[in-house]
Amino acid sequence: MKRNCIIGQSGGPTIAINASLAGIIHRAKASQEFENVYGMINGIKGLLEGRYMDLLEEFDDGDKINALKQTPAMYLGSCRYKLPTFQDDEDTYVKLFRILKELEITDFFYIGGNDSMDTVMKLDDYAKYINSDIHFIGIPKTIDNDLMGTDHTPGFGSAAKYVAASILEVVHDSLIYQLQSVTIIEIMGRNAGWLTAAAALARNEYNVAPDLIYLPEVVFDKDKFLADIHEVMKRKRCVVIAVSEGIRDQNGHFLDDDSKYAKKDAFGHVLHSGTGKLLESLVFKEFGCKVRSIELNVLQRCAMHIASKTDLNESFVIGSKAIDKALENVSGHVMGFKRLSNHPYEIDYISTDVREVANYEQKIPVEWINEEGNDITQELYEYLYPLIQGEVHVTYKDGIPSYYSCKHLEK
């Protein structure tokens, strides 16, 4: 009997999440095991509203699949929907599984971050509770690189490449005047500093910046921060600093907790905004020099023009490996990477029980942060370096990148 699968995307966008979707579609077609491959529009929330599309009809040749692979953000759209447990709201599960039964779904794939893996876990729990044969497989993605069960996450390498390139360009910008200056770059990372650590990849044969790197894994002290800048200014005119949005003081309070811009998302996570501005005011008061803060914000998520080829290729393959895992009749697993070697860079594709992944965070090991708490170690640099390698050839039309249309998401 032919199989039918359905795929959803959830959480924040990345450069590589569509590459995983493309990998699933490609492998499903090549396996000749699937009669239908459906895509949820706007994740699990859209599925509950009966919104989905036929992906085999849309992506009926290799050129279209390759174009999807090189399109940033999320072709299927996303949602920030917290699925309740079936013990708290079984009606929602009854409705979901009725839709899956009507479509004769055998395999369910969900591409996303930590909260998305929580959804996979809850659906698999209910499937086991009612003895459903549907296989639920999670495929990781997040620029934060904070998922357990994998060496790194699809989407992170490309965002890291963007961060490194942007900081190198900021360095060039800051050097043109004979002025003392401090530039503070605020980078995403609520509890894990992987993306901020990637700023170190901007260093090359003529550039040592960022001069200071501050991560949420260690306590941030304002007085020490200013003392660190004083030390750098003894040897340099222009100081460039990379700081995570999630840095916090010795009491565990985020620096921007009192910011008038503080908001929370659907999962209760604080949406940080203002760390860079707060530090900018602090530095200007102390030094009285030219100070600028830059918040990369969403710019680091979907910059396909500077994507990592390594990231895109791995993301495509991990999608195809998810099909193989489902064909082995595995359920309740999350796909992942296992690092075999840094030199040469080599990985293997693995899967882990979703219960060991969902609602856990993988932070930077403290031994990968220097003793001063203001830089990374060589071990972390060597972990990061392979993930940004290789360039992606982006097709251009009328002077701007030509991506696969997302017009269907406007409806």
Q: Class by helix and strand content? A: alpha/beta
Strand content: 15-25%
Q: Which value, in Å, is the CA radius of gyration?
A: 22 Å
Reading off the top of the CATH hierarchy, the class of the largest domain is best stated as: Alpha Beta
Number of strands: 15
CATH topology of the largest domain: Rossmann fold
**Number of H- or I-type helical stretches:** 12
Uncertain residue segments = none
End-to-end gap: 35 Å
**Helix-strand sequence:** EHEHEHHHEHEHEHEHEEEHEHEEHEE
> How many domains, as an integer?
2
Main-sheet strand order equals 3-2-1-4-5-12-13
Q: What's the architecture of the largest domain in CATH terms?
A: 3-Layer(aba) Sandwich
Explain what you see.
Its EC number is 2.7.1.90. This is Pyrophosphate--fructose 6-phosphate 1-phosphotransferase. The active site is at 144 (proton acceptor). It is found in: Cytoplasm. It contains twelve helices and 15 strands. With 411 residues, it is an alpha/beta fold. The protein folds into two domains: 3-155 and 304-360 and 389-410, Rossmann fold; 157-300, Rossmann fold. A seven-stranded mixed beta sheet has the order 3-2-1-4-5-12-13, sandwiched between helices. A hairpin with a 5-residue loop joins strand 9 and strand 10 (270-271). Helix 1 runs antiparallel to helix 4. The longest helix is centred in the middle third of the chain and has 19 residues, at 156-174.
